[in-house]
Amino acid sequence: MTVLPAGWSNDNNGGRGGMGRGRWGNGRGGAGLLPRPGPFPGGRGGRGGFGGRYQNYQRDERFVSELKLSKSKETLSRKSTVFQEPCELTSYSRVEGGEVFFDERGLRLFKRHVSEDIGADLNQGYDTFIEKRDLGSEGFGDLLGSIRAKNISLENIHFVTFRNNLNKILGAAYNRHEPWEMGVHKRNGTIYLDVHKLPERPQSDLDRRRCYWGYCFESLATEDPGRAYGEDIHHVDANVEFCSVVKTKLGAHRVLMGAEMDCCDETDEGRRIYIELKTSRELDDRTVERFEREKLLKFWIQSFVAGVPYILVGYRDDGGRLVRTERLRTKDIAHRARLKNYWQGGVCLAFADEVLCWLYGTVKENEDYTLQFVHPFMRLELLQAQSCPDAITNHVHLLQHPSSPPPPQ
Length: 409
What we know:
Its EC number is 3.6.1.-. By secondary structure, the chain is of the alpha+beta class.
């Protein structure tokens, strides 16, 4: 188990930090970023509360509990949060046609000479692109199936989730304008966080094309035995994927997490490492700060929580032509952002630790909830839900009765 590696530590006070004078930071040291969770009477003002313009906020009738947020990051920056280096337990692959295999056949190899493709048109193959299908809870069922196939014990696991949900939680420490929600279901002492996809605005052809540029870059940056040298990209299926299943620990809670991996490479010592592939519009003097404040924060969170050490960014022009590539070390990103006082990785971890503590202490066994972050983005709300996804219900049944089929739905 390790605390944040060198350059990522958020303990600015020689180990004497912490959350004010009490765990929830409500002592005389000042109002905490995350006051003590639990239902509060409406309209209460004071430090750390709402008061003023938010005192008439109307609660959802399904309301169970809330975690109020404050704009200050100072308290969390003094908390040193233990984060265990992720350890891979198993993996699975989804191939063309949607079939899932509990092996590594979908893992792609990083193409080390990707710089040779600078100048490539990322529009190539767009006409035959197969867009990603929303699997809903079916995708979560594949993750749970890989856990059962490997006989991984969940006895001491507090949370099972896809990385996407942890990305949302860690990112909410700074990103206070993007709504999200997720399902929360506690069974046999383990909380399953199901991915909920919110409705999106209709996409234009340019939106879809920009999305495709990212997939095309992934194809360019990985080895493809079926494509001859110099041959254009001609068949991209966004549904083909490889997912690593890792175990980690954030604060006091053990987390089992599924994370889609773009590709892998080997170190000089022969150790396999994963590499994240990203695209971005080429930067200029007006856009570099926003890139470092917002995009690099998302890049760092996604790679750090899954133990991915490197990110390769492909920069493109407005027409979709690849103009350059840049390899970033995950740990260097956080150090760079901290030096510029843009954001701190340790604040994200401390924030997530408080959220997980609140969730685990609030939700009840065999009950179902929705966790949401909505306008005005000043609190996390836990709402009662009416049902549990079949994927989780079947999974729990199969853990208890491996030889009997799941009950009919």
